[in-house]
Design goal:
The chain is α/β, with parallel strands linked by helices. The chain is 49% helix and 13% strand. The protein has a single domain, classed as 3-Layer(aba) Sandwich (Rossmann fold), CATH 3.40.50.1010.
């Protein structure tokens, strides 16, 4: 039996997926609809979705992060599970973060880079096929430090014009 391809889900994709249509402007609505379309397409392709435990911590800024993540799992009809930060993923994330911080000028470090590095470390270490995000820039930089094969899928943008695939994947190497 072949293992289903893994799609790791970033916080930004979860926030868009769970945004309330009644509270949205046209831009946010379009971004949410693109995100829903991306999840639907990957579901048809047999993807299983992984929500990294650092995403749960990041979601906790507005309340219990696990409750928000469980809503996503329910919305995905249980095709998702939590992916825990293990020792190997933490080592990879640490290596990514150190390499990226060395490239930044002093004072330009951001707190989110820690969450992003942990999420990218889990995606790389688990052999994920995709990392779903609405914030590809930092992830591309982090994944490139370890020459990861994880593809970034920008969930909130329509596919590139003429692209056969219904997901918008960006290579980061």
């Amino acid at each position: 039996m072949t293992q289903q391809p893994l799609a790791i889900v970033d916080t930004s994709a979860i926030v868009l997926l769970l945004s309330s249509p009644s509270d949205e402007d046209d831009t946010t609505r379009a971004r949410r609809e693109c995100t829903e379309h991306t999840f639907a397409r990957l579901t048809k392709e047999g993807a299983r979705f992984g929500i990294p435990t650092p995403v749960v911590a990041e979601l906790a800024r507005t309340g219990p992060g696990s409750a928000v993540a469980l809503k996503v799992i329910a919305a995905l009809k249980r095709r998702a599970r939590f992916e825990e930060l293990d020792l190997e993923s933490a080592d990879v994330a640490g290596a990514m973060r150190i390499l990226k911080l060395r490239e930044r000028t002093p004072g330009q470090e951001r707190g989110a880079i820690s969450y992003d590095a942990l999420i990218a470390g889990i995606a790389h270490q688990r052999g994920a096929r995709w990392l779903l995000t609405a914030n590809p820039r930092d992830f591309a930089a982090l994944l490139s430090t370890v020459k990861s094969n994880v593809e970034l899928v920008v969930t909130d943008q329509p596919p590139a014009k003429g692209q056969l695939s219904l997901v918008h994947a960006k290579k980061h190497t």
